[in-house]
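task queued by scheduler; priority normal; single chain, no ligands, no partner chains; default sampling; output format set to structure tokens
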Amino acid sequence: MFGGAIAPRWPSPPPAWLQALDGVFDALYARTHPVQGLCEAHHLYGPNMALRASLVIAGARFDPRIGPTASVAYRMGSETELVQRLERSGHRAAMLQQARVHHQVRPGQMTEAFVLARARRHGLGQGVLAARTRPALLPPLSRVAALAASEVKALARLLPGLRGKRVKTWYGREWLRGYCQGYLAQRAESRRLQGGSPAASDEVSAAR
């Protein structure tokens, strides 16, 4: 599995409130991390990745339950789910920084509405993947407590000059809501389909 560098191409300079979200540009705009050579599969992002043909011939497929759909609240992460599933099967990933592309950002993707909807979708997808691969029921309580504290602080962040902090707080809230929703939905689906095994749906997908 191979991936290359991705950088956002803005239609205009991002405003200060959006720049304050730089730490989550990977989720918002598929910006990659500066790794090189063999790496963990989660560093590979859909806009600039490739699989060996032999993997596809052998039956590697995207899980249709994850990824863009007609719904505005779909579970993000179809590429991540696929490459991590292949990684658990013994295949390795490599990042090639010289294979660089730009991810076109549209004006409508530089709005608060887009950012918060993207946060919810990303959280949904991460919750589903966590339910399939990790035993913890929900995010650590410390993170939940920190989010609760940030909700209180958000009440004092409604002035225009603090817009970046306000949106960052709301981003975390929407992401966590999506994560919990995705995790619990996946657990329920796994129990329904496989008699109580949280990892069972992952095994079903791997067999496709």
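post-processing summary
- DSSP finds eight helices and four strands in the chain.
- The beta strands are 2-9, 37-39, 49-50, 93-104.
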